[in-house]
Amino acid sequence: MTRSVSCSRKSLASRSAENVDACASASDWLSSWRLLLLLPQPTSSPRAPTPSVSSPGRSRNVIMMVSDGFGPASQTYGRSYWQYINGHSEDAKTSLDEILIGASRTRSSNSLVTDSAAGATAFSCAMKSYNAAIGVDPNGNPCGTVLESAKANGMLTGLVVTSRVTHATPAAFSAHVVHRDMEADIAVQQIGDYSLGRQVDLMLGGGRCFFLPNTTEGSCRLDDRDLIKESKNYGWEHVVFNKNEFDALTTEHNNILPRHTMGLFHPSHMNFEIDRDNKTEPALHQMAEIALKSLKKWSTGGEGFFLMIEGSRIDMGAHNNDPVAHVHEILEYHRTIKVVKDFVASNPDTVMISTSDHETGGFTLGLQPDPNTYPDYLWRPEVIERARASTEILTQNLILFHTANKNADAMNIQGQGSPRRQTHDYVRKEILDKGLGITDATEEEIEFLSNAEAIPNDILRYLSHAISRRANLGWTTMGHTGVDVNLYAASSVQSGNRILDRLRGNHENTEIGDYMSWYLQLDLSSITEKLTKSADKWFKPKSEFFAAEHPHSLHEETGH
């Protein structure tokens, strides 16, 4: 069901203004640029050859994969669980393990702990910026992105995600706003309504609500702009809303999508993989496979392509401290990695990079629940295997049950047994047993979850920690941490291993953007110059953003 979205931003804007203003100070700006000047410049590396211009008929391609919120512990978790459920030995490697090449540092320009907006902007603009920045520099001015520069070079471009397409990571490659919560403005730019025009040829994910006018139920916009209708004016030819339409369109075009296709498969974020209905939403690996086939088919003239693929909801499972949703998102990302690796292996002049913007959750494989008791050195994959749903969907189901009971009481409708007994039975059987595979629930747990006045976020956290504790898994936060994250890469055989030399070892996240610019021979500064010259016609500065109300992106509730 769709639901209306609260658009009040006064408290958020007040707090964000303080943070963003602080990051725009002269000292912060100079510090970030001093840091960038110290980094190795892409054109001066002695280790890797400068990529030559592709031969006629051959395309140079980059596939940038972002595993949002996915830290080193999460990869170990995913591998161990995958080995357990498939009966593999301890030396079995996942699709990611085979291409580990280094590590990425994650700090932003104004914090040692980044958010996804600044993290993605480091990749897209090869530049450190402040938390909440989308395709803008530390002063809040637009910076050219690798996607835009690729398009300027005549390349094809695509975005494939499981979050809203207007969310931080895809937005940072395809839009420029001073704050990530400006998702209504991000959607406008993504269809092509800004100085550069339409820059994306293929866009698949969630977030339909920011493309619908406020006269439509479930819209997240404050205005009456119908971006689905307007998108046709910018060259978008097809828009699909569910998997049936997606499959029909690919079948009609010989197992690829036609150019300029937009798929918006959910009003907000697409469902967690464990909750996904295969009849209504495609999986990440399915979208990625079709995107790759389509971009290759379109690139018959040797244009080449840039494609960004994000495992968006890995992060959100960790934000919820939900080990069930988290691991199933990881496994789906592993499947997507295999699809992309197979493509890279069979297509010349192609490079794939996979890394994370940050770690989420402070996740630990091991827990000491009682500081007075010596901890057990183990964690229990069998506990996770029994679960059948995310704590997010179970929380929603429980809230609906409580609401229905309140309405029944108000109408004096009598059910089977006392209301208290009914609630206890529902919590025990439907939420804990069938949902999480918990059969040893305590009376305290039953009582807490039976409280119809409990806040949804408290229920979510309670369920997540109930199964985490039984699996002996730990979380230190429901937010991000500042640890380094793994860096993975692979190239086609024709490119040779040396083409990846610049990515080996430990790097600042901006160096990943530098590498993509180097490999594709892009000029980000020229795009920045174009954006700056026309900014007064389309760009909203910080002063304008914080002086007005804007649609609330809900990112605080559903993942950063």
UniProtKB/TrEMBL annotation:
Catalytic reaction annotation: a phosphate monoester + H2O = an alcohol + phosphate
Gene Ontology cellular component terms for the protein in this record: fungal-type vacuole membrane
Known cofactor(s): Mg(2+); Zn(2+)
Binding of Zn(2+), residues: 68, 315, 319, 357-358, 480
Sequence intervals crossing the membrane: none
Signal peptide range: none
SUPFAM superfamilies in alphabetical order: Alkaline phosphatase-like (SSF53649)
Keywords: Hydrolase, Magnesium, Metal-binding, Phosphoprotein, Zinc
Family that this chain belongs to: Belongs to the alkaline phosphatase family.
Protein's name according to its UniProt entry: Alkaline phosphatase
Species for this entry: Linnemannia elongata AG-77
